[in-house]
Amino acid sequence: MTTLRSTWRMLTMNKVGFLGLLGVLFFVLMSFVGPYIVPLDTQTKVDKIYQPPSREFWLGTDSEGRDIFSQIVHGGKEVLMVAFLAGIMSTGIAVTLGALSALAGGWIDAAIMGLADIVLTIPHFPLLAVLAGLIKLENYVLLAFILAVLAWPSLARAIRAQVLSLRERDFVEAARALDLGTRHIILREILPNMISYIVINLIFAMTSAIYAQVGLVFLGLVPFSGKNWGVMLSLAWTRGAIFYKNSLWYIMSPVAAIALFQLSLVSLTRLLEEIFNPRLRTTV
Amino acid sequence: MTTTSLTRPKQRTLVPMYWIMRLARNYLLRRILIAFAKIVIVVTITFFIVRLMPSNPVETYIAELMDQYGYSYEEARDEASALFNLDLEQPLWEQYIQYMKNLAQGDLGTSYRSRGTKVSDLIAKFLPWTLFSVGTALLISFTLGILLGMIMAYKRGSILDHGLTSIASIVSAIPNYLIAMMILVFLGVQWKLFPITKMRGAYSPGMKPGFTLAFIKDIFFHATLPIITYVLTTVGSWMLAMKSSTISTLGEDYVTVAEARGLPERRIITSYVGRNASLPLITQLAISIGFVVGGSTLIEFIFVYQGIGQLLLNSINARDYPVMQGVFLIITIAVILANFLADFVYGWLDPRIRTQ
Amino acid sequence: MMRTSDTNGLFTLKVDNLWVTYQAERGKVQAVRDVSFALSPGETLAFIGESGCGKTTLGLSLIRLLPATARVQEGHILFRRGTEIVDILSLDDRELRAYRWRDCAMIFQGAQNAFNPVLRIWDQVLDTARAHGVSDRRFIRQRITELFELVQLEPDRVLRAYPHQLSGGMRQRVLIALGLLLHPPLVILDEPTTALDILTQRSVIDVLRDLKKRLDFSLILISHDLSLAAELADRVATMYAGALVELGSVWDIYKRPYHPYTAGLIRAVPTIRGERKELISIPGSPPDLIALPSGCAFHPRCPYASERCRKEQPPLQVVEAGRQVACWHWEEVAEDNGIRMKMDSAQPGTTFAIPAPREHSLSAQAPINGQDVILELKRVERTFKVGRRMVRVLDDVSLQVHEGEVLCLVGESGCGKTTTGKIAAGLLPPTSGEIRFRGHNVWNSDKETFRTYRRAVQIIHQDPYASLNPTQRVSTILTAPLLRHGVARNRREAKDLAMELLRTVDLTPPEDFYNKYPHQLSGGQRQRVSVARALTVHPEFLVADEAVSMLDVSIRVSLLQLLERLRRDLGVAYLFITHDLAVAKYFAWEGRIAVMYLGRVVESGPTPQIIHNPQHPYTQALLSALPEADPEATRSKERIQLRSLDVPSLLNVPTGCAFHPRCPLYEAGVCDKEVPHLVDVGDGVQVACHVVARERGIA
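^ Those are the sequences you sent over. The predicted structure of the assembly is below.
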């Protein structure tokens, strides 16, 4: 009971972080549970084009008279999945390669860091634009993978630097003297000291995956045809939804959804910083 | 005599080795060689990736002719194949070798789509506008970020600090193209604060490029919205970085000692706190100059601004390989040069590095 | 600004009833409590006390540099400028800037970062002068040149230099010179020699004494180092928990402390002179400044404490001419000379013999060389890559440690003692040479032998804040090795053993510590956890790398006593690494000392011989440089003058004998040509010095 209460207290003490958590939870629920509750409106209604928000259409209607709210609900899943997958993959690659680089040293280190250097030198967004051309229809795992392949180097460098410095710490030396084994040293001594950094970077990796992904879809470089905030943005743009007062809802709804989700993610990092820092955790 | 003739061939093999070793030890030269190697690798990678993309210049052109001009497929195909008397049938590796050979002579090739136009001319036409708009924005946002960041650090904990920190984190969390879109929609279309249709392009049609006041005013007019967007989306991270750098500098002993020495407040803020706190950010600035060139695609698309991003987007859509490659090369060189610049600037500003 | 005419007699500075608090998350920290004192012109007053006693806060409030969270609650700080008296606390910003440095200069702890790294020293001198209206460059140049010569710096070179181009000792001297630039009548020195090596520290002390003689200024010295205060101060003030508890002349206080805390502090410092004396460790730890104990703040740690001490706070009262003390029982303390402090501190702890790990085979079998040498380093050399250069950190180091013996490794920073420790513990392979554990060449042996050796040799690090993983609880730290090596068969057993270990290292009751994170423990408690962790694997040999140097004096002694108890009860042998010869003497009186200089052992032998009859000029210089916690002894001590204050860098080790550029016995053509080797000079002492060897008739 006391731990529950103190967890709750910690959550609510950090207001920004708490709001971020609520925001992320909201978007996850909306995108993954929402589609089962709100059916996607696919019916063209010529008499209801560009309606302002009403009780029937919470966010108004689009250029064909379809409900925008249902599109927002259905358009999040793909964006979130790509962000999540790309974040996990790029962080995974970064942590593995960074740690390997630091621990193995020698030519492995040189090779990994050389590769990181080259990936960092290649201009990312243009390259993504080209690589996106390789994607066959609606394969978001591949899209996430391509995003991840370009996103790992800076985190890998940071992880390498951290492992190199942690490895020289006195407590790691003590663990070596105690013959606790390589596994213990990596998993129990070094990793826990980097976990907050890794998780926070995972969140940031997710935000940049959203940035790149939506940008690509918006430019029409990724052949996504289904419902997706980026596709909505792209359609609204090409149909000139920016020009009329009532059509604004069509373009601003996905803009707001993406911006709010990004903000929630960034705010969430504040909470994570606190959760993973034992210094802060136990003084509460 | 016999001894010299015996040692000579030995020396001959040693001398190049000696020079290679010496060159390898020369820091600057090594950096240049590595940079050169990086360019070659990036060019190679992009050469193949670009050509691996589905579709090709002929197909996209055929599709365009059919779409836009109502050609039948046959007509379009004839027209296209007449236009593109291309060496696309050559094996890929031969094309590669040819490209590299030309590149070594400084020849970036000619565009497929706008026939006869040299890629270097296209770049020369589009690049300055990106450099101008993003460069100006970067300077503005850096200066603003440094100043606001220092103010936030000095007034930390105040309402001003909390307000600026929240704004900074919000604007830096939202993707820049969304902000561009909101600017366009609200400031341009809805509230009509900017005549957006007139602001398209890098300068007004009929305007004669040159160092005239009218032209300079005109290019700033056309670059206004991209500049506002870049400033808004980057100033937040400069502010936050400067704030934390200033806070840690304020905790340094030499600042306390400077206060104990009774130095005037202004001297402490500028030469003791400001100069040291901005050191790491200046390196960051130099590095971000490199990414300036590559990061502008979406913004230029939204504001219809004639920069390198537009050029890239057009060439991707047309599968205009030489132009795509040229743009990649320019961006890569920019990144590498910026890294050089960063090292140089840091060494120049920080005596701890300069004197070692 | 308050100005009154001087009616209170002559003083430079007078502090009346000063209260300073900090606002912390948990509540108000009472950093300075009701402090009053006066400083006469030309006088040196030293504030002594352990960390957190409020002495630095007091110093900062004298120049009004308190952090934003601090607040002066009450009191006056009066400064006499000519005939007028100024209340520092009521100055406005402009007046305050004029007061700083011109009237009162403060020389901070850690001069390493006292200078702006991007400005040359000359620019910073100029800044200082200009801020106070002196702008004649030639005059400034002349003045700073004079001062630099007084502090033994080359003016031209140093003025042109950037801060990072100067060594720590040089920076400290530059700051002292800069402090005197404007002839301030008052100088505050906050831990001026902490973090400096012994010989550098000596040069700074000498410079200060010399300046004090030549120039007329009052000095406030803030230091935890009782020896420094003994050497420099005219009067001494002891602070405890933010309050002054004793004030008097340096001679009286060191000879006969009236406050039990002062008595404890003085008796806790080991000395070089005479026989080894048992030291006092003050029980308990300094109080929480947010929730102070009732009555006298010292009563929970005081063996003299009575009911009255628990209820009533003793005032600082004049008990003799020029002597003030805040203790209800000062007469008893004066009478028995604080002896009761000692009786209470010497609690015989329980030593728990932990069962040996399962695969502990090596120590059971007979040593293969038939001797009782447990660890031996043979002609060890170690190089490191620094940039593109190979730097030799250790050169031809040979050491032997017998079972249950203490070998002290002494030397200044950069001499290679830490590297030697790591090599001895098997954490770093030597570049060449052998490490033999019970006769086995460990780097050239099978895996089992190496692992057994690795476990039998454990290390205690210097920094208590870095030696424990911040993400692990004490429970994990202790049970992980117990479980891994099968000392405990299950978690329950591991917990029982861990509890026993906590008890062994005097962390009682163990339940209070078992579930704590390192950041919830004090420095001394963390070091005890480190010791307990080392004990989990039943070590026979401990490398203690400056294990007590970051601890306060009172805590230091009790940790040394714990280590000594382990040696006595468990037969643990030590490689005890320290920069402090007095600590070495105290801990290794029955053992041996090896003195290192720039990667080589220059002298080794039984502790009493090394301490009282050093042979190598470097050892002699070190011993003569040490200040002692006894004003008479330390001021009458004969000092050896070195030929150069500059410490050579490892990147550029002098030819021949590495000490020759500084050595008073230097002979050209001999010392700079050949590296001297260790030779026996009798009494078990070995010395590496050409001159000493020749005088003894050894080739």
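Chain A has one domain: 53-280. DSSP finds 13 helices and no strands in chain A.

Shout if you want it in another format.
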